[in-house]
Write a structure and sequence with these properties.
mainly alpha, 131 residues
Amino acid sequence: MKNGGDALHETAARGVEAIHMIVGQRDQLLTDSERMKTEIMLLREKNTQLDGRLSQAVAERDHYMRFCVELTTNLNNIQSTINIAIDAAKHASYRPSPISLPPKADAMTQADAEALEGLIKRLPASDGEPN
């Protein structure tokens, strides 16, 4: 019976070792599960924070895109105005002057000289009396 008892003890010892190993593996798996649950919670929180930052970045981008479009439109309008003014100035030298000046006389005529002498004679002298 010694052989039968030893075999039973040996089988029982192997069963206890197997159960002990299974319990150890279960404890390790429970620890890993808790660690993974904690990591998942942290990742979800980080995901929530990143979603919030993304929403803020999208709102800022949209604001600055509208600003850039408005600025670009105004700058294009200014550039068009400048180009129109430059083109108008280029062609302005070919347009006739809106003010027509009398033709320049080469010499004073005798009638002009007599008219000037008459005006000069009518001017008051330095003492306030006419010449």
